[in-house]
Design goal:
Elements: H1 9-12, H2 17-34, H3 40-47, H4 51-60, H5 70-77
Length: about 80
């Protein structure tokens, strides 16, 4: 699907159109992921980057990619004994 938006010319003068498109896709993917509308992998796909790059983008935007509390993590690790 293609969506068209109108941007004032003075906003587009700062960057090339491909860069603007990429920033909009990435911002929307971040928003969808942060609001739990899509999974991490789907957000990365929407942003057009691989999973690890998207995780890095999330980190730069202070969006956690693992939603687990300290207590939940400790519960998960209880009894974990690596070979």
């Amino acid at each position: 699907m293609q969506i068209t938006i109108e941007l004032p010319n003075d906003f587009v003068a700062f960057q090339a159109v491909p860069e603007i498109k990429q920033e909009i896709k990435t911002s929307y993917a971040l928003w969808l992921f942060q609001h739990e509308r899509v999974t991490l992998i789907k957000a990365a796909e929407l942003a057009g980057v691989d999973l690890y790059d998207f995780m890095s983008i999330c980190k730069s935007n202070r969006i956690p990619v693992i939603d687990i509390t300290r207590d939940e993590l400790l519960d998960e690790l209880t009894g974990f004994n690596p070979a």
